[in-house]
Please model this.
Amino acid sequence: MKSGSVWLISGVPGAGKTSVARALCARFSRAVHIPVDELREFVVSGRGNPLVPFTAETKLQFRLSWDMAATMAARYSDEGFIVVIDDVVPRWGLEVYERALGDRALRKVLLAPSLEIALERNSRRKDKPFDPALLVPVIKNLHPSLLSGDAGWLVLDSSRMTIDETVTAVLDGFERTADTDPPSS
Model:
């Protein structure tokens, strides 16, 4: 059985990671979406809060969630599923993903809408258990650091793209290889 490809969709909060990840999965016959925010929410008591300065505990919980996401991705990939992880991934988080995925190829996509668009999209969010306005300083802080143009990332300015257009641009940005299922639509 051929391994499925593993995709990592990153970007600031409000970039459209979850929407794009789910829509990308829908383009394949067998695909799994791993939303890392939900893995972090598994911690019921003592959860590290990413909206305040990072503590050692917060950093530990992020590292654990990245390792678990990559471990899940590896298992599903080994069974032939396409896997799409969505997460805000700083440089130090990428190392955790790459180590846990081993020699599996990782297709890295950075959704990079303008700061203004990310802030506007964030203001319309209804999917968070807290006021999305709390993410504004996080978005402003992360936006320049995630846009550094690291090698190996497909960077898309999705400011003026629909979700479907963004998914098409993601697929067009990578050459199809033998380990990628043909899209189902």
About this structure: The chain has one domain: 6-173.
